[in-house]
Design goal:
single chain; alpha+beta; 2 domains; elongated
Length: about 240
């Protein structure tokens, strides 16, 4: 059963990087692929590791550096042949939007950010959004649906503020209206709770411009959403 809410976009900015997307262990893993062992890194700080990683990446051809990032992202989940194919597509394509599996969009977004920094451009600039929303309802029980499937509910609510032909509403029409929205967590890259009261909730969201780029700061709209249906265990 759908519950009714009001959704307001309190703030929205376009982003091309996510803070703290890369950590010391990530830089060490990439440097290891470039034959720089941990014994050569000494007691380097995270910022020093990043600088060495950027300099080392820049020593390779663009597609070779892309391979290191892709291997780090996909581990052993795709073949080396596929990684080679994707590495040649990265300069011209927007894989953080175009890759078939949305579970990798956030990681690919981060990869483009690092590669652009290493090469002072060349690769396309990743496009994302960071925004805060306020969700209100005079019926406090309406928020019960947030407890079981928070990401699914919020994506369903936000879809009400998009055009009918928006990419999100077209690609995920069945999941938005259906019983289960399994891709919702892939769409909301970062979801942070800001505040909760009986009649209002506020969240900060980081996601792709592909999904929510047409939202605007200050816009407000009525919205409906429902929770996912929990699947019963078969005996």
């Amino acid at each position: 059963m759908n519950k009714e809410f009001n959704v307001e976009i309190l703030s929205l900015v376009k982003i091309s990087a996510i803070e703290n997307a890369w950590m010391a262990d990530d830089y060490k893993a990439l440097l290891s692929m470039m034959d720089i062992g941990e014994d050569e890194l000494g007691g380097m700080s995270e910022s020093e590791l990043k600088e060495m990683c950027l300099m080392s990446l820049n020593d390779f051809e663009h597609h070779e550096s892309a391979k290191f990032l892709l291997r780090h992202i996909f581990k052993d989940e795709i073949t080396e042949g596929k990684i080679d194919q994707l590495s040649h597509q990265m300069v011209e394509n927007k894989l953080w939007e175009e890759h078939a599996d949305s579970a990798y969009h956030r990681s690919l977004f981060n990869a483009y950010e690092l590669l652009r920094e290493a090469y002072n451009g060349i690769f396309k600039e990743p496009t994302g959004v960071k925004f805060t929303i306020k969700i209100t309802s005079n019926i406090k029980d309406s928020f019960d649906i947030f407890d079981s499937s928070l990401h699914a509910v919020i994506v369903r609510l936000l879809s009400n503020g998009l055009a009918e032909d928006a990419i999100l509403t077209r690609l995920y029409e069945e999941q938005i209206s259906g019983k289960n929205f399994s891709d919702a967590k892939n769409i909301l890259w970062i979801l942070k709770e800001i505040s909760i009261t009986e009649t209002e909730r506020q969240y900060e969201i980081t996601s792709s411009d592909l999904w929510f780029g047409e939202l605007e700061e200050g816009m407000s709209f009525e919205a409906t959403a429902h929770a996912d249906v929990e699947e019963e265990d078969e005996d």
